[in-house]
Amino acid sequence: MVVDVLGLLIGIIAHSAAIQDRDGAKLLLLRVCKNADGSERLPQMKVIFADGGYTGQLIDWVEQETHWRLEIVKRSELHTFKVLPKRWIVERTFGWLMFWRILNRHHERKHDTAENIMRIAMIRNMLRFLTRKAQPAKNKKAA
Fold this sequence. Notes:
Blueprint: E1 2-3, E2 9-11, H1 21-33, E3 47-50, H2 57-66, E4 69-72, H3 87-97, H4 101-104, H5 111-131
Parallel strand pairs: 3-4
Antiparallel strand pairs: 1-2
Helix pairs in contact: 1-2
């Protein structure tokens, strides 16, 4: 899944468990970075953040194929919970998707069906965010 800094969906791909995450990332990034005619899709994007599972040759591949920079956000301590900058954004997006029972009980046989259900869920979330009324500021009582 590729999301922007707000956690809104840019691209998603579902693949079988037989495909390594790094290889799946290549498929996703090619889908996200180029239009059908070969033109650049997101010219303003410069940096992608990922967790430690995407280290290795993928960093060089991203630079060559997409002209983006892949930065790995590493954990400093293994056995403690700590919110890491940039990495929590995609985790929050996964949390939003898990509110949808159909995604929580993933039983689709086709990968494109799973992808489309996730897109529909994110469309609903984005519409909810866009149509939400602004919360009035709480008045502080003078002492």
